[in-house]
């Protein structure tokens, strides 16, 4: 007679964990991390015992766990090599708050005297891929079984899926339903060290092919386990001991772009602690489950439910000139996220700034472009600890781009405000080009010729032009030009560009200028 399983949960949920610990039933890590912009609020699920419970996956309207706690109709065996009891598979009902009811045995067919591990299901939920040890070995093997649709709860056609030899372990499988890729963790040879996360294709006949290591943006020389792909296929979540963390296994997220894994980030101190955080599972975009080991026993875990809240963050891009650190207005700025989505395309304001609302942990690509400067591409990932982020981008002036023509060269004019000898900020860029030009041409000498408009007394304008010529000369010297190759002279109003009786503001400014005469030996 075939064995059946009926995951019928008739015991009412009473809102307490099985260890009867009613203190701190809600664990809000952010009380200890008030600056975190990504808040995880952790709460008891009502199923935890004095032994171990680890969340694994959903099956139909149930949530499945593995536990070494003996419950009704189950038989637990002691694993001498692990010095603890073996896990069995249990299922629980889930209420609207994601609280869980009393765990019942999931399947007598799948439970064995060995150690059961994590599992995952096909999209139609008619195939299970699960892990199990063999005898006294601590290594897990991967199996699949088919659901008998005619007999409720009966799993048949159990088959081992061979991925590596018996000397190595295959653990924590996750099947992505969108592309039928199986993700798993293994310590088999060829990785970066310890346990690495791999992906593989499942063919129509159920065999495993095209096994690939996810690469060093996910895997390290230590251990990575418990892969989980978000429903929008944008992110892979996993637990790692190797990336920078807070101790033990922490939960990380990596972005999936063009089958590559980028921008690996720690989910922060409101979730991760010095303990082990594993088996991160999203039930909804902002809700899910996490399993965390007990304080006094690293091998035993409890299952928590969590909710997330993301606070607003403000990202300000400040664009400056590389040498002068002068803020640059009217810079073209294009900001995209890590998936290539355009966030904004705009220009910097008069203070050289662009401000957007950003999301912590999201990677942004910023392309800044302005005439006369090299285009700069910057990639940043805002911190989760600061509500306001300021990123400074320095644009480098392009090369002199001044070519000799019959020993006479044309250079952008230098302008001044009315009645002043102070160089306008936008003209400092041209002067930096002059410095570059001199450095590129060691035989070149430059005469600095300063001019004024026709306003004011002629003698006063002559003195003002001399001050402007000297101001230009001093600027070039301060920026590294050889003073032996520079001369300066003021011409006052004797060489007006616009000889107008009543000049416009623009015409007057064009008259207030510095020009350069180039001599090449």
Query: How many domain regions?
Result: 3
- Count every helix, treating DSSP H or I runs of 4 or more residues as helices: 3
Secondary structure tally: strands: 34
**Which CATH class of the largest domain?**
Mainly Beta
Helix content: under 10%
* Main sheet strand line-up: 1-2-23-22-21
Oligomer type = single chain
Rg, please?
35 Å
**Corresponding CATH architecture of the largest domain:** 5 Propeller
**Envelope shape:** elongated
Describe the protein in words.
The protein has 521 residues and is mainly beta. The chain has 3 domains: 26-310, 5 Propeller (Tachylectin-2, Chain A); 313-395, Immunoglobulin-like (Sandwich), CATH 2.60.40.10; 414-520, 60s Ribosomal Protein L30, Chain: A, CATH 3.30.1330.60. Helices cover 8% and strands 40% of the residues. It has 3 helices and 34 strands. The strands form 9 sheets. A 5-stranded antiparallel β-sheet has the order 1-2-23-22-21, with no helix packed on it. A hairpin with a 4-residue loop joins strand 13 (170-176) and strand 14 (181-186). The longest helix is centred in the C-terminal third of the chain and has 21 residues, at 458-478. The relative contact order is 0.08. The model is unreliable at 1-6, 8-32 and 403-408 (pLDDT under 50).
